[in-house]
Each structure stands twice: as structure tokens, then as C-alpha cells.
């Protein structure tokens, strides 16, 4: 029995020495884990972020780390790693982009190891090599995430039949009456606004007609003064005819310069209630056309009288369309 107690420590030491060096979790390192979602559905892509805050005394082995990661039952779509120098410490952040196509339930992102070396051990002596320095490791624990199903379970309903708010129908009377009054008020306001817009447009139209009338009268007077200062020729009658035709086009909108006196008369009868005005326009245009195209006609009408006839015609223009 005494021999057994003497051999037991030796066996324990031998077993401990013969066992491969396991993973060492350095308490000076801080490990944080987080996922972009607390629960996922089939085919959802999410991010799993692992942050390790460690002293600058250590250096992690990050080469080919993505090839060594085993994340089943998840699939690794993308892997990014970034190290940030914080003075005496370094923050290493790894972002894994994962997706899962397994059956719904509570799943685990598997744990994995991160290997590192003391920087001093690597820098001691000129012949020190990385393979001669024993590697250390820190274990990133597994992380749980719920994979939910898109199918309805027993007792599940697409719509909840519970009333969110219940109240007697009598309380709807006041809101309903208020809505009706508001609609009536808005309708009345729209009617008044439309009538005002129509009246304003009519006033603007009349003002435009007055300006066109004054401009035409001024042009006729200038032509009349020009005829008294020089010998009258047939071109003055054509200018007067063009002026009257352009005035009719501006007022009534039909292209009078391209119409004969008879066609202009018919258009004016369709656009105005006064047939006498249309007949007077026809007579004036016919006189101007005959005088211009037949300069040798006798007796030749006096241009001042024709201008006075055009002036009276413009002054008596009916503006209704």
C-alpha cells in the first residue's frame, strides 16, 4: 500500500507530461461574441462577430484562418478580419457571414481555436524560429442561435381575431358627424375656389382683349397718318388687311390670314352672336383685297375712309367666344 502511494504521484506526473498540450485560455484576453440577428429563418444571411482584446505581448496567427474554420451546420459565405492598435492593446475583430439550410430548432455556431505566440519568444535570439516556439491557443466558445420555421404550427392563425379596441357604436356618432361637416366644408370651399378661378380667368381674358384692341387701334391710326404724308399705293390696303386679320386671329383663335373674306365671315358667325359684325368684316377685307389686286379699279376707295371703317370695326368687337 505504501508503494502505491509512492507510485501514484509519479504516474500522475507522467500522464500529465505525456498528454498533448491543450488549449490555454489566457485570462488577460477579453472575448466578445455577437450576432446581427437573435433568430433566423431558412436561408437568412447573418453576421457572427468575434472580438478579442489582447495585449501587444502576443501575436495571433491569422494566415489561412478562414480555411481552417469549421462552422457546420452553417455555411461560411464571407470572412473578414481586422486588427486595430489601441496603444498597449490590440483589438482583433472577425466577422463571419453565415447561412443555414438545416431543420428548424436551436442551433450552435461551433467553437474554434485561435492560436497565438508571445512576441518576446519570437524575438529572442537571432536563430529563433516560429516552429520552435510552442503555440498557445484561446477557445472561442460556441454560440447559440434559433432557426425558426416559416410554416404554421398547431393552433397558429394568420390573423388574430382579438379586438384591439372595443367601444359602443354610439360613440361613433360624433366623429361621423364631424367627418360629414368637414367634407361639406371642403366641397363648398372647392366650389368657391373654382368659381373664383373662373372669374379671375375671365377678367384676365377681358384685360388681354382690351390690350389687343388698343394695340390694333394704335396701328390703324399710324397707318392712317402714313397715308396722308405720302402718296397712297395699293400696298397700304394689303397692310391694313393683314392687320385686321391678325387682330381677329388673336381674339378668336382661327387663322384668318389664310382665309378668304367669305371664310372669315363664316368663322366669325360661328364664334360670335352678332351676324352684323361678321358681315362688316367681310366687306372690309373684300375692299382691301380688290384694291390691292386691281390697282386700276375705279372709283378707288379713299384709304382714310377704309381706315376709319377698320377702326370702328375694332371698337365694336364682340368679345364673347
* Proportion of strand residues: 15-25%
Measure the end-to-end span. Answer: 132 Å
Task: Report the CATH C-level class of the largest domain.
Answer: Mainly Beta
Q: Widest sheet: strand order?
A: 1-3-6-5
Name the structural class: alpha+beta
| Extended strand count | 10
The low-confidence parts are 1-24
- Count of DSSP H/I helices: 8
**CATH fold field value of the largest domain:** Immunoglobulin-like
Radius of gyration: 51 Å
Q: Name the overall outline.
A: elongated
* Amount of helix: 40-55%
Helix and strand pattern: HEEEEHEEEEHEEHHHHH
How many structural domains in the coordinates? 2
| Major beta sheet summary | 4 strands, antiparallel
How does CATH name the architecture of the largest domain? Answer: Sandwich
Mean pLDDT: 78
Provide structural commentary:
The protein has two domains: 24-148, Immunoglobulin-like; 212-315. The chain contains eight helices and ten strands. The strands form three sheets. It has a four-stranded antiparallel beta sheet, with no helix packed on it. The chain has a three-stranded mixed beta sheet with strand order 2-10-7, with no helix packed on it. The protein has a three-stranded antiparallel beta sheet with strand order 4-8-9. It is of the alpha+beta class and 321 residues long. Helix 5 packs parallel to helix 8.
Amino acid at each position: 500500500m505504501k508503494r502505491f502511494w509512492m507510485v501514484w504521484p509519479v504516474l500522475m506526473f507522467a500522464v500529465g507530461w505525456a498528454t498533448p498540450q491543450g488549449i490555454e485560455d489566457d485570462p488577460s484576453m477579453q472575448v466578445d461574441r455577437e450576432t446581427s440577428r437573435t433568430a433566423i429563418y431558412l436561408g437568412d444571411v447573418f453576421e457572427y462577430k468575434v472580438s478579442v482584446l489582447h495585449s501587444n505581448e502576443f501575436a495571433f496567427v491569422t494566415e489561412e484562418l478562414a480555411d481552417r474554420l469549421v462552422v457546420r451546420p452553417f455555411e461560411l459565405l464571407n470572412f473578414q478580419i481586422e486588427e486595430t492598435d489601441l496603444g498597449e492593446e490590440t483589438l482583433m475583430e472577425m466577422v463571419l457571414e453565415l447561412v443555414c439550410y438545416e431543420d428548424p430548432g436551436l442551433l450552435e455556431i461551433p467553437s474554434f481555436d485561435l492560436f497565438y505566440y508571445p512576441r518576446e519568444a519570437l524575438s529572442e535570439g537571432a536563430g529563433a524560429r516560429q516552429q520552435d516556439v510552442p503555440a498557445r491557443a484561446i477557445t472561442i466558445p460556441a454560440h447559440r442561435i434559433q432557426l425558426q420555421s416559416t410554416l404554421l404550427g398547431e393552433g397558429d392563425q394568420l390573423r388574430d381575431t382579438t379586438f384591439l379596441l372595443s367601444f359602443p357604436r354610439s360613440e361613433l356618432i360624433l366623429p361621423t358627424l364631424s367627418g360629414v361637416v368637414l367634407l361639406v366644408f371642403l366641397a363648398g370651399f372647392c366650389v368657391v375656389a373654382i368659381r373664383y378661378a373662373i372669374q379671375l380667368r375671365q377678367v384676365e381674358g377681358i384685360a388681354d382683349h382690351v390690350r389687343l384692341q388698343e394695340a390694333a387701334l394704335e396701328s390703324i391710326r399710324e397707318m392712317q397718318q402714313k397715308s396722308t404724308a405720302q402718296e397712297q399705293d395699293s400696298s397700304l390696303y394689303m397692310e391694313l388687311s393683314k392687320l385686321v386679320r391678325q387682330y381677329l386671329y388673336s381674339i378668336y383663335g382661327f387663322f384668318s390670314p389664310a382665309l378668304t373674306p367669305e371664310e372669315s365671315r363664316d368663322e366669325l358667325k360661328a364664334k360670335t352672336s352678332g351676324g352684323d359684325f361678321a358681315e362688316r368684316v367681310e366687306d372690309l377685307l373684300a375692299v382691301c383685297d380688290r384694291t390691292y389686286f386691281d390697282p386700276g379699279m375705279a372709283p378707288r376707295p379713299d384709304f382714310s375712309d377704309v381706315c376709319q371703317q377698320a377702326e370702328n370695326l375694332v371698337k365694336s368687337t364682340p368679345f364673347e367666344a
